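Review form for a predicted model. The reviewer records the input and the model, then writes brief findings.
Reviewer: anonymous (R2)
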Amino acid sequence: MNIPEILVANGTGAVLVSFLLLLRVRGESKNSVGSELFCQMLVVTLLAQATETISFLLDGVPGAASRFWLYLMNTVCTGAAVSVGFAWCLYVDFRVYRSIGRLRRRHLLLGAPLLALLVLLVANLFGTGWIFSISADNAYHRGPLNILLYLLLFGYYAESVWQVHKAKRDGVTVEFFSVYYFVITCAVGTVLQGAFYGMAFGWLSVAIAFVFVDSQLRSLRSYLDELSGLFGRKYMNYCLDRIHATQEKDVYGIMMDVNCFKEINDTYGHAEGDRAIQEIGHILSGALVANSVAIRMSGDEFMVLIRHGSEEILNKICAAIEQRVQHYNATAPAGSFQLSFSTGVAKYEGGSVEKFLVELDQRMYAEKRAFHAARDGHAAPEQGNAPSI
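Model under review:
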């Protein structure tokens, strides 16, 4: 066992991961589900690098204390490896579909195999030797079910690749999403570590893979709106250009304008106005289904673009948005702002996307005029100014 190589490899990996964590602590929004998942993977990776290093240092060291820590450190490190694979699948799914609701459903399905493995690892602590064993001279040995770790980990990698492949086929995701950089780099490190026990290729490759992902995400960030956590207008233009180029069918749009947003800023201050945009980002993200994306067009105007959709899917998303708005308004602190939208919906019928946007815009502003007419007509007899939100 080459201890200096292990210390250098895991030490280098820990420096890379710590640097990425520091970048997020200092400069990235904490409101993004994707950012939280990425940070969790980094923290687990850092923990695994520490526990793996300790386990290598204790391997073959006599004594009951060494045996105890060898079992514990190897259990944590093994569980961390598959947990990162599981979290990577969730991260990819959210980056592709931007749907919190879908993420909640997927984590139960994807988490079942991980839970079963964790149960086996707990049982392994009691000396079953199913996953690994520690011999009388405190040396680590792989168990008969150790292969399950590799099968599950590579299964998670394959699932993430499939999700991106399917999304690209359906025209859902940005082309340069970095799933392949991560999967290939991690797979190579995992295979090398499995083939040459005593060499620390695995977690160093994971750290390098995260650096690749971070680099690609900085390119992707130009498509994102930082305040809402949604895609920005640049991404909307990207999607509409593709729709126009392919004359794609079954495309629906929901254009929304926040009612009385100026009054939120004027009454509660611009900080609360920013918080309103963040809350709207959460509302729209949670209402999405597969093949739909929420976009902040500008200011207080938003759009949900649905590809490969139907009237049923359109109505489902509209109902989900309304339900989430009502839930927010019902649970908002007393004296806080309330939210509502004026909405226009339309189906892309081919030809110019400008016509599609104009139709959405006209229907949205027709509803907005009706909203203000109803509001002003109700409020005018009682008070001489506009009511608060």
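Findings: The chain is about 65% helix and 10% strand.
Further findings: The first helix runs from residue 3 to 27.
Recommendation: see findings above.
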